[in-house]
Design a protein that fits this description.
The complex is a heterotrimer of chains A (about 250), B (about 150) and C (about 120). Chain A is α+β, with helices and mostly antiparallel strands and about 250 residues long. Chain A contains nine helices and seven strands, in the order E-E-H-E-E-E-E-E-H-H-H-H-H-H-H-H. Chain A has helices spanning about 35-45, 105-115, 135-140, 155-160, 160-165, 170-180, 190-195, 210-215, 220-240, and strands spanning about 5-10, 20-30, 65-70, 70-75, 85-90, 100, 105. In chain A, helix 2 runs parallel beside helix 6 (about 170-180), helix 6 packs antiparallel against helix 7 and helix 6 crosses helix 9 (about 220-240). Chain A is elongated. The termini of chain A are far apart. Chain B has a two-stranded antiparallel ribbon. The termini of chain B are far apart. With about 120 residues, chain C is mostly helical. Chain C has four helices and no strands. The longest helix of chain C is centred in the first third of the chain and has 36 residues, at about 1-35. The chains are: A alpha+beta (about 250), B mainly alpha (about 150), C mainly alpha (about 120). At the B-C interface, helix 1, helix 2, helix 3 and helix 4 of B face helix 1, helix 2, helix 3 and helix 4 of C.
Chain lengths: ~250, ~150, ~120
């Protein structure tokens, strides 16, 4: 069995001992069908147990393993080593503060999410005896794509606005807000739109489209945001005519 | 020339429990691949201003009288001016084509009772409109009609 | 000023969107004819003559088109330039750049209306 070797240049950062992130280089044997995550796990298991990185499902549904691979935000469990040459650079996601090694601070992301009120806002409380909400396949189709987000944060790492505007809610949060606005069961568009047109909201987006380029689940957050902008302008205009707006 | 991430990018309201390292900017901004296309698209804003101020100049010259108008037209004959206008033309045509390329995804799945047309429909309609309107303008300003 | 701009963002964005469509459809034709073909004498001799052009743009529809072709691209350009400034200079510059860019667009729009009224 021929053994292929690759070199991994991995960002390391220990807040107790390092002033700033540095890199360490590991040359390891790799198998042809490995993903980047397999290599990182090999490094941790066999070479350097101190390496810290997030991962879980290994099948691109949990969103844990996002990192910069040769400068691009990727899910490491979904990124084949065969795409790369003899040297692979692995760094923590761009635009996020770094907790340790390849682990980024997520709390800012969680806070932005909550701001768009990502839950069904009812017009009135519906008693269980009235039955379930009814939703047709056509109504589901209007938001389903935007509900596929796995919160992997690759879109934030790719976004030039996130790099420059600390208040920006970001692609995933805004796309999720749009998802709920589009949901026929939801009646909270008016109050959600107020948040989404506030500082750091929809109109901070400059349509770089990088978020959609890197999204591993084809959510197309850029499309969601541009559609939401149009909806928001219409909502803003009609709010002067119908103060307590419907859907 | 590259952008730097702010040190407070993606910051949370409370300080994290341990010391964190500053965020890094997106690696390939602004010079690689899609980022470059995006920056160029944004830069056409300058071309828009230049073109709009040229139209303003022309309308003001028309309002000022025949001599002002002819003086302006004469100045347009200078080779540098022709090159400048040609550059604006090429730049804003590129802008138009890229705008039409991204336009379909900005449209919602439903506008009132009407479902969203297909991407092909948008492609044909927008690029077709560009050709038809440019032709119309050429025929009008060129002296063939009206 | 910042609060005012946030409040006006929806309408600024709507002007920006309309401006992009106006630029895309009207500007290339104008630049080609008046800026390149005309100076190179490939048009009919009287095509760009004062009388003819004044007749075209003096008509109410012509005035409307002229005003739109100046004002809306200025708003589109302002929005683009503002965001480019943020991308390269950070959000702190926005407090200066945003009012500046939109002030130029506003001034140009007023100038456009005055210019078409003077035709």
């Amino acid at each position: 069995m021929s053994e292929e070797k690759k070199t991994f240049v991995v960002t390391r950062f220990d807040p107790d001992t390092d002033d700033a992130p540095r890199t360490e280089t590991y040359e390891i044997p790799v198998q042809a069908d490995w993903k980047v995550l397999d290599a990182l796990n090999y490094i941790k298991d066999e070479v350097d147990p101190s390496l810290s990185h997030r991962w879980s499902c290994r099948m691109a549904v949990c969103g844990s393993c996002g990192m910069q691979v040769n400068g691009e935000p990727r899910l490491t469990c979904k990124t084949s080593l065969s795409n790369y040459g003899s040297t692979v650079e692995v760094a923590p996601l761009a635009n996020f503060p770094v907790v340790r090694d390849l682990v980024v601070e997520m709390e800012g992301f969680m806070e932005r999410f909550k701001k768009v009120k990502p839950w069904i806002i009812e017009a009135k409380e519906q008693a269980a005896i009235e039955g379930t909400h009814r939703q047709s396949p056509a109504e589901l189709a209007e938001f389903k794509q935007f509900s596929m987000c796995i919160n992997c944060m690759l879109c934030y790492a790719a976004c030039p606005v996130t790099a420059n505007e600390p208040d920006y809610l970001g692609p995933a949060a805004l796309a999720l807000g749009h998802r709920y606005n589009q949901d026929s069961r939801d009646h909270g568009a008016r109050e959600r739109n107020e948040v989404m047109r506030d500082e750091g909201g929809l109109f901070a987006c400059s349509f770089a489209n990088e978020c959609s380029e890197v999204c591993p689940k084809n959510v197309d957050p850029a499309g969601a945001i541009q559609q939401a902008k149009l909806g928001n302008v219409i909502d803003w205009a009609t709010s002067f005519v119908v103060p307590r707006g419907g859907k | 020339m590259s952008a730097r991430a702010r040190v407070d990018a993606m910051k949370s309201s409370a300080a994290p429990p341990t010391r964190t390292a500053d965020p890094s900017p997106p690696d390939h901004f602004p010079g690689r691949g899609n980022y470059l296309s995006y920056v160029a698209f944004g830069a056409t804003g300058i071309l828009m201003w230049l073109a709009a101020f040229q139209v303003l100049r022309a309308i003001r010259a028309l309002g000022a009288g025949e001599e002002a108008w002819n003086t302006m037209l004469a100045s347009f004959r200078h080779p540098s001016y022709v090159v400048f206008h040609a550059f604006l033309f090429v730049g804003l045509t590129w802008f138009a084509l890229r705008f039409f390329q991204v336009f379909p995804k900005t449209q919602p799945p439903r506008m009132g009772p009407f479902a969203r047309p297909s991407d092909t429909f948008f492609k044909v309609a927008l690029n077709g409109a560009f050709v038809v309107v440019t032709l119309l303008i050429a025929l009008v300003l060129g002296g063939a009609i009206l | 000023m910042k609060t005012l701009l946030i409040k006006l963002e929806p309408i600024i964005w709507a002007l920006f969107g309309a401006g992009m469509m106006v630029v895309a459809l009207l500007m290339p034709g104008w630049l080609l004819m008046v800026g390149v073909a005309g100076p190179m004498d490939v048009l009919w001799a009287e095509a760009l003559s004062y009388d003819r052009m004044h007749g075209l743009f003096g008509h109410p529809i012509g005035r409307l088109i002229a005003a739109a072709a100046i004002a809306l691209p200025l708003w589109a350009g302002a929005h683009h330039i503002r965001h480019l400034a943020i991308d390269f200079g950070g959000i702190a510059r926005d407090t200066v750049f945003a009012p500046l860019c939109y002030a130029v667009a506003l001034a140009g729009s007023v100038a456009a209306v005055l210019a078409v009224l003077a035709l």
